[in-house]
Specification:
The complex is a heterodimer of chains A (173) and B (279). Chain A has 173 residues and is mainly alpha-helical. Helices cover 69% and strands 0% of the residues of chain A. The radius of gyration of chain A is 15 Å and the shape is globular. The N and C termini of chain B lie far apart (60 Å). Chain B is of the alpha+beta class and 279 residues long. Classes of the chains: A mainly alpha (173), B alpha+beta (279).
Chain lengths: 173, 279
Amino acid sequence: MSKSFFQNLLITFFLILVQVLICNHIMLFNIATAFVCIYVIVRLQMDLNTNWLLTWGFLTGLLVDIFSDSPGVFSLACTILAMVKRPCLYAYVPKDDRTKNVTPSLSELGFGVYGKYLFSMSFIFSLLIFVIEYLNFADVKDIVLMSLGSAVFTFMILLGVDSLIVTRSEKGL
Amino acid sequence: MRNLLSFIIRYSKWFVFTFYVVVSLLLLISNNSYRQSVYLTSANAVTGTIFGTWAQVTGYFHLKSINESLQASNAELQNEVLNLRSQLSEYAALVSDTLHHEAGDRYGYVSAAVINNNTLNPRNYFTINRGKLDGIRTGMGVVDQNGVVGIVNVAGDHMARVISLLNETQHFSVKLKGTPFIGSLSWKGGDPSVGYVEEMPRHIIYHIGDTIVTSGYSTAFPEGIPVGVIVNRTRGADDSFFSFKVKLLPDFKALSTVRVIKDIYKSEIDSLATFDINK
């Protein structure tokens, strides 16, 4: 078990607490919620086995579900997010760089690529959460509006989390 | 066999993905069953403890507005008591004897604190710190000082989960105050202070600002508990009826102290209903 594994585990638990106790109770302008619990899924290194990544995503979602009384919603969204992580990043990385072992971060990818990747992941997750919660395509306008709002909010919060965690432990993730 | 193994290993991520998705979907679907949701809601001691502590801290921030609201409600009740006393004294002079009237004893109230509340989802619930040991049972109505807030969904020994009025699946039987006309109140998502009353007869005379109260046609709520005030008329699903947009009176974002209504005739009325169905 490497040091980074435990570090990721600690960050995950901390962000799950933040998600359950703070973020789930904030709805900015009635349309935007921050989903900070996806941070570690977004930041896990790309050479990690997909099965482990899926397991990490599922368990993260399940823990949020248990503590926020939303069985299945976050676990399903986190699992799907873990599955689309690789194609989402590769959509913005040149073909030649795809074989490298990359840890998605500002320092490795630069703001352009990392920003696009982070926003895409935030939007996909927000969209999944609201589609699963509403389960009704009659509310498409609300779903798209809330997904966009939440994606922007999540993107900004995660950039903030990045600056807090990465500066202290650049080598960790 | 070797081919099968290599096939499974090669596509293992899809098997794992499918497995987790199926588990998540099962959790999602089984959430409709109230019994199974107990494990993830009120009965969860960890969540209860954390939110209990959280509610103790944040409860102080709402005290001022709640106090003002209580004072207003108290003043209104005192006025009502004075009015009733004066009416009683008038009747006492006219009637020397009367039958014992038990209606006032039918309902009892259990005070409870809200320890976890949500208004952001299409289907919202909140948790209170009273359970079966305090006499709370499934189906009991819950009100705060301003009006109706929900119905008890699941009761554990020490805590209970309440289906909030802010739950798209819930409909409440209501009427226009002072009239016998019944409608159905529901919340349709979005703004937690706005509900909709549908199926009101078209011949009723109403004014903006009129109060909507409970109809009393259920064992959950007695007649006449305020729910909201009419904001405007809206286009309903059926043109044969009126539909109203209603400003809900309780402040769902600051729910703190609520009262659970106990109807002593509930079991009797429920058993009568079952009797009819079985016949």
